[in-house]
Each structure stands twice: as structure tokens, then as C-alpha cells.
Amino acid sequence: MAAESGKKWVLTVTAQTPTNIAVIKYWGKRDEDLILPINDSISVTLDPDHLCTTTSVAVSPAFTHDRMWLNGKEVSLSGGRYQNCLRELRSRASDVEDEEKGIKITKKDWEKLHVHVVSYNNFPTAAGLASSAAGLACLVFSLAKLMNVKEDHSKLSAIARQGSGSACRSLYGGFVKWIMGKEENGSDSIAVQLADEKHWDDLVIIIAVVSSRQKETSSTSGMRDTVETSMLIKHRAKEVVPKRIIQMEEAIKNRDFPAFARLTCADSNQFHAVCLDTLPPIFYMNDTSHRQEPFFNSSFINVIVPHFYLPIISCVEKWNRHEETPQVAYTFDAGPNAVLISHNRKAAALLLQRLLFYFPPQSDTDLNSYVIGDKTILKDAGIHEMKDIEALAPPPEIKDTNLTQRHKGDVSYFICTRPGRGPVVLTDESRSLINPETGLPK
Amino acid sequence: MAAESGKKWVLTVTAQTPTNIAVIKYWGKRDEDLILPINDSISVTLDPDHLCTTTSVAVSPAFTHDRMWLNGKEVSLSGGRYQNCLRELRSRASDVEDEEKGIKITKKDWEKLHVHVVSYNNFPTAAGLASSAAGLACLVFSLAKLMNVKEDHSKLSAIARQGSGSACRSLYGGFVKWIMGKEENGSDSIAVQLADEKHWDDLVIIIAVVSSRQKETSSTSGMRDTVETSMLIKHRAKEVVPKRIIQMEEAIKNRDFPAFARLTCADSNQFHAVCLDTLPPIFYMNDTSHRQEPFFNSSFINVIVPHFYLPIISCVEKWNRHEETPQVAYTFDAGPNAVLISHNRKAAALLLQRLLFYFPPQSDTDLNSYVIGDKTILKDAGIHEMKDIEALAPPPEIKDTNLTQRHKGDVSYFICTRPGRGPVVLTDESRSLINPETGLPK
Predict the structure, then answer these.
(1) Res B125 pLDDT > 80
(2) Which EC class, in a word (chains A, B) (predicted)?
(3) Is pLDDT of A104 > 70?
């Protein structure tokens, strides 16, 4: 296995992988094991400076089995989806040699060697911020580096896809398309980059996080129910999405914000529409606004966040109409957060004023923890301290301010971010999450 | 005009017309002036003992113009839809003779004579209980009787349709289909009876009324927006509804409650799904749970009632699943009320227990005004006084009672009713709403 296999060496790699938000949604699988979707989807990769997963992976002859720690807690790797990814990666591993450390691993050794995975999100897990997308993408990307897998990102995306569908889109920065593919074995169901993050760097993305206390809820059963019972999903997948994909690619290519915004909002609404067309209907939920027993024991079905979704949609639609051209697009995933994409910094500052007007923080909140990420947007919005939020006037597009409700405390915090880069290896040893001596989490 | 036209005679007719609830929904017009729909719909007529419009119409040579009073207030008849109905009826009027009163009106006289219309709903106007359906149907039916229009109910339904689309379905009792028709002039867009109210008289219908304080809001602009912007509505109208209509007719014919319930719930959810697929998205609303400014000045767009819709859907879905066969179907129109159709009296009593458990009245409410209509269901449910509601245990299908929320005060009242008869003329003069001397409201 190595020249000095008697020595307890540990070889590690650390990588950072972004999360992504779909602007043309993925909902519905044609193959549940391979995670093959019923339509193409398009996403924007979010800046990993604000939202990312960092994963360190290690291999050592001393490891007795594959182990994983997520956000400080050991979790099982025995799930079929993790196993699929590990198997695919091991079968593509190549020789690895580290002369300095005197390590030599042959292609064949990888079948017997065990790995440790230590992963950490810089944002709340399972708060609907695609933590599983970033997490699985990072697992696959870092293990591929460790194992010297020579496939390109596209091939890696097909492996990450088997861990979590939308993870395949986190293998690239900028604007990414997940091609549904036609092959039964899924080999052509891969992600490709449409444009990198510099192509359209005016965009500013603001995420309203409702609750970070939410439990992990799988969208798998919801998707299955929709595919089995909705009379509209097939039409969406076959007729609507293919046209929207072409239009969205064109909008991104031309940096055509009105078209981009129109398609993004329409597709978010249609995704929620097909959820509602499911039997039993699927709504999306928020712990904070109302706790409700799961519909059935078998699956935890989410419920709409009216205090949250509706004022945001209403705010955006009113403002866009008032300006006569879209300033901002909204999109809601299968979780309790809103993602708002603004045309540029100026629109983002105006948006943030509106969001802080409608969703002021609780009085004991620290402004510094209420708006995180790129805080320069906050400055552009003229908000320097809490009293600036209190002093915000209703947006000019509001006709009857008496009917305007403010929703204090409904939002946990806002994240200001932008389109960002794809996965990178972190060479700085101090960034590693694994103790190089023990092979355990630091 | 009459043998004694110098005498100020007043000739009146009084009729009562039921409201109806669609179980296969009407949403979307192909012709806005003629009110021609993009799909067939099916409704259940509700018992007029509990929900109906009573309308008295009068004609007199002393009347100087057409006038109408609705629920005690004079309203304008100048709207295009009223005018269409009046024109259609006048053109079909026949000779009328009342020898006793010495009145003789010829076919030609009707062009010059004016009418008074006095209408009264025994339920809240514009609370989403299809008051316009019952109202327009009653207007057309009573005027047709007054004017001796010799057309059958089907032809009258085509006239009522031009006043308010769903009004055409109120011309019959029991189960009614509105055939969309193919003709450009709308002559074949008529209602037909599928089965009368005795065909399936086990059914018990419970309506939860959320707010009777709501303003009249037209669904016209919402439908138009959906037809213009939804990518799913055409598929619904062309592919989904035609199949469901066949299945629903079959379910009604065979009194197949599981099929009836499945189709009813699925179609209600799909109707709300296409509303959500509209740009801007349409949600349905309730004044009580949150007031919100209309999205735009041009149209008042409603917003979902989560405190209300979701617990009801959740309650019904859980119970149906627990029983392994549907006990009850839910359907929500473009308004803030829920209509629940139970298989039989036994299921209705169990449903009412559940509804009263989840939606108890405010403590100062009188039980007698909280559950109205057929109160025998309340007795079957074992509820005799307010403390019986307080003593209700959570339904057995609830696993975790800690997570169960009760929504005190969210429902204004419940109406227990059943499928009912079509329009009738009330011959008892004391039921007339018009003073036979003055021709004005009593």
C-alpha cells in the first residue's frame, strides 16, 4: 500500500463548495435511485464567501471504516446515496503518490482504504438553503481530489447528482444548467456551466431566512407524490420547462434582467402550483409562524408561510409594476426562505429598504447579525443603526399605508450575496477540518 | 297596454333560487362579454332552506325606469351584464293577461315597460357563497315568469350565464353540469341537470364561513390574468377537466363517494394551483386573518387563508387516510369559505365534531348562531351546549396532540345543509318583497 505502510500516515484534502438556487426548478424524478429528473433546471451559484460547505477528507491505513462528521456531529455514511457516491468515486480513483510523506496509494488500494469526511456549513443546515446540494457536491469534489479521480467537473456532477440531485449544479460557479439527459444509466444527466460568475456580476442576491430551527425534511417523498398524482406536472415538465430553459439561457446570455426576472418568478410560482396540485396537496412551511403536526407519519409535509411568502411576493410585484420594469425577481424553494435577485446594487439597496420596512427585526436584535454577508448593501441603503430601520418610510408604490402590515420578527436574518465561484481546493493547511495526526475532526 | 292602463296596477312575481358549489371548477373565459367558459364544470345545488336568494320582480306602467334593490339597498342595473339579461328576457317576453286585475300586456309592451327588482339573500352577500350565482339566477328566473318567457330552464340558464357565469348552474336542483358549448354566440353554453336532489340525498354539506365582512370582489380580472399568463390553465382546460367531467358524472350516477371525494378535492386544489401559476400569482384571502392592501389598484387580489384552509385540508386528509376511505370532500372557491361534503349523516356528525374541535367559537358566542342550518347534525354530534365543544377530545387520527393547534374565532359560523332543489315561484303573497300598491320594496 505504501513504502512505509507501517507508519500511521494520514493524507487529507480540504475543499470549499458553493450552494446554488434554482431559477428554473427541479421537481420530480424519473429514476429515484439514480436521481434522474423529469426536466432540465437552471441555477445561480451563490458566493461561497457567504454560503458554502467546507469539507476535509482524509485517508489512512489506520482507518477501520468510512466515517463522516457534519457540523460537529458524527453522521452515518451507510445511506444508499452516500454509498453510491463513494462507490462511483472509488471505481475511478487513480494512483496517488506523496513523496514528501512517503505515501504511495495504487488504484487498487482505494477499494480497501477507508476515508474520513468532516464537513461544515457556514449557514444553517436544512433551512432550505440547499445545504445538501453544497454538502454532497463538496463530498464528491474533495474525495475526487483525494483519490486523484481524473474526470472533469461534468462527470463529477453526475456522481454528485446521485447523492443529492441539485448537488450536481454546485460543481460550477456562475449560471449552471442541469441537463436531464436521456440515458437510462444517467450518464448524460450532468451539469454544465452556462456562464461564469463574472459574466453577470451586477446581480445582487438577498436571502431572507425565516427559521434556522427547521428539521431536515426530505423533498423526495413530496416529489414522488407530485409525479404520481399531479395532472399538471407532466405538462410542466414536457411542455413548459423546455421552452423556459431556452428563454432563460437567452436571458442569461444577454443579461436581460426583465426576461430573467419574469421567468424566475413564474417558475417559482409554477413549482408551488404543482405542489398544490398534488394529492395530498403540498404546502411549504415555516416553524416560526405556525407549528403543525405533519400531515401523515410517513412524510413531513410543509405548509406555506403566508406571513412571509405573500408580503414578499406582494412587495416585489407592486414595486416591479410601479417601476414598469422588473427591479427584482423572487424565488422560493422547498423551504422557508425567500431568495431575491436584484438587477444591480442600486436596486438591491432599494430592495433592502423595503425588506427592512416590512420585516423589521425584534427590538433586541443586533443590526450586525440581522443583515449578514455583503454589508455594503446595507450602507448603500442608508441603514447604519437600528433607528434607521425604525425611520424607514413606506415604499412610494404603497397607496394605502393604513393597510400596510409590518411583520416584526418574522425573518431571522438577511444574507446579502451575489453569484459566486465553483468549488476550490483550500491548500492552506490551517483551513483543514481534520487533525493530520489523528485523522479525526479538529 | 292594458284595458285600464290609466289605473296604476302593479304585477309581481316572487321566486326563490338556490346557490351552488362547483365540484369541478369553472375558471377562465373564452369570451368575456358572453361569459363563455374554457371548460365544462359541475356543481351541487345547495338546499335553499339554508342558502338562497329570494327575488320579487314587478312591472307597472307607473315605473319610469328599471330599478333594483339588493339586501335593502338600491343598486344600479346599468351594468352590461344586467343589461344583457334584461335585453335577452325582453326579447323573449310573451303576452301576459291577468283578468282579475284587468291587466293585459302584449309582447310588444315589454319593450317599453320598466321593472322593479327586489332581492334578498338569506346568507352573507359576497362571502364567497356564490351570492351572485343565486342572485342572477333568481333575477332571470323571476323576470322570465313575470314576462311569460316560454323558454325552458336550459335556455334560461344561457341568459343567467350572461349575468354571472356560475348563475346558470343555479337553474336546477341536485347535480348540474354547465356545458361550455362550442358556438361563438354562446347558444349551446347551457346548464343541464345530471341528477336531481333526491338522487343522492345521503350527502351532508357543511360550510365553514370565515368572514361575512368581505367586500364584493370580482373574479373576472383574476380569471383573465390566469387565462393570459398561466402556462398550466390550457392543459387543465383541454386535457384534465374533460376526463374529470366524465369521471365525476360517473361518480354521481353511481353515488360513488370515494371517486366523488377524490375528484372534488383534486379539482379544488388544481383550481388554486392555476391561480398560483398566474402572473402576478393569485391567492385567496380572508379579511379576518390578515388585512392586506390589494396588489394593484386595478384589481383586488385575494390572499390564502392559511389559518383556515390548511387546518381544514389537513384535518380532512388525515381523517380520510385514517379511515382508509374518504369520509368527506373539501372544496374552496374564490372566497374565504370551505365547503365540506360528507358521505352521510354519520360522517357529517364526526366531521362537525372535528371542525368544532379545531375551530371552537369565541367564548361569548351563542351555539345557536355558531352552527346554523340543519341543526340535527349538531345533535347527532352530541353537541348540545357550549361546554360540549370545550369537552371535545382530539380526533383519534391525531398522533401528536401536543402539536395540534385550535383556531378559536377563525370561523364565524358553520352552515349544515344538503343538496337541494332548483328555483321555485313563491305564490304566497306574504313572501313578496314588493309592496303591491307602490311597487317599491316592502
Answers:
(1) no
(2) lyase
(3) yes
Number of separate helices (H) and strands (E) present in chain B: 12, 19
Using CA coordinates, name the residue in chain B closest to A264: B279
CA angle, residues B201, B204, B209, in degrees to nearest 5: 145
Distances (CA, A) of A322 to A123, A311, B120: 34, 16, 41
CA distance B55 to B146: 12
Distance CA B315, CA A184 (A): 40
Does the pLDDT of residue A309 top 80, yes or no? no
Report strand pairing: A413-417 vs A204-209. antiparallel
Q: What's the pLDDT score for residue B177?
A: 98
Q: Which CATH architecture has domain A11-196+425-431?
A: 2-Layer Sandwich (3.30)
Angle B117-B118-B123 (CA atoms, 0-180°, nearest 5)?
Answer: 135
The average pLDDT across B31-56 equals 96
Cβ neighbours of B306 in A, within 8 Å = 283, 290, 303-304, 306
Task: Nearest chain A residue to B283 by CA: give it.
Answer: A310
**Residues in a beta bridge with B416:** B206, B373
User: B204-417 domain in CATH 3.40.50.2000?
Assistant: no
Kindly state the DSSP code that residue A347 receives in the 8-state scheme.
Answer: H
Best probe of the A interface among B235, B239, B305, by most A CBs < 10 A, is: B235
Provide the CB-side half-sphere exposure for A341 (13 A, CA): 28
Shortest CA gap A271–chain B (Å)? 8
Ranges A219-223, B232-236, B352-356, B383-387: which has the least confidence: A219-223
In terms of DSSP bridges, do strands B67-70 and B114-121 run parallel, antiparallel, or are they unpaired?
A: parallel
Q: Count of A–B CB contacts within 8 Å?
A: 126
A289-311 mean pLDDT: 42
Cα distances (angstroms) measured from residue B398 to each of A222, A289, B309, B403: 21, 21, 18, 9
Q: Which residue of A has its CA nearest to B402?
A: A293
Above 80 in pLDDT, residue A370? yes
Q: What is the pLDDT of residue A294?
A: 37
When pLDDT is cut at 50, 70 and 90, the band that residue A204 belongs to is: very high
What class is the B11-197+423-431 domain? alpha beta
Neighbours of A207 (CB within 10 A): 25
Complex confidence, ipTM: 0.85
Question: Residue B316 pLDDT > 50, yes or no?
Answer: yes
Task: Quote the CA–CA distance of A274 and B232 in Å, as a whole number.
Answer: 9
Instruction: Tell me the CA end-to-end span of chain B in Å, nearest whole number.
Output: 26
pLDDT higher than threshold 60 for residue B212 = no
Give tens-digit pLDDT for A318-368. Answer: 899 999 999 999 998 877 788 999 999 999 999 999 999 999 998 888 999
In chain B, the residue whose alpha carbon lies closest to the alpha carbon of A277 is B270
The residues with which A68 forms a beta bridge, in sequence order, are: A75, A117
Who contacts B379 (Cβ-Cβ below 8 Å, separation ≥6)? none
Domain boundaries, chain A: 11-196+425-431, 204-417
Chain B contact set for A306 (CB, 8 A): 283, 290, 303-304, 306
Q: Is the peptide bond before B37 cis (omega within 30 degrees of 0)?
A: no
| Beta carbons within 10 angstroms of residue B52's beta carbon | 25
- pLDDT per residue over B247-256, tens digit each? 999 999 999 9
Shortest CB distance from B232 goes to which of A229, A235, A296?
Answer: A235
Answer whether A421's CB lies under 8 Å from A137's CB.
no
Question: How would you classify the pairing of strands A338-342 and A175-178?
Answer: unpaired
Determine the Cα–Cα distance for residues B92 and B80; give it in Å rounded to an integer: 18
What is d(CA A214, CA A217) in angstroms, rounded to the nearest whole number? 8
Question: For A277-326, where are the alpha helices, taking DSSP H only?
Answer: 306-323
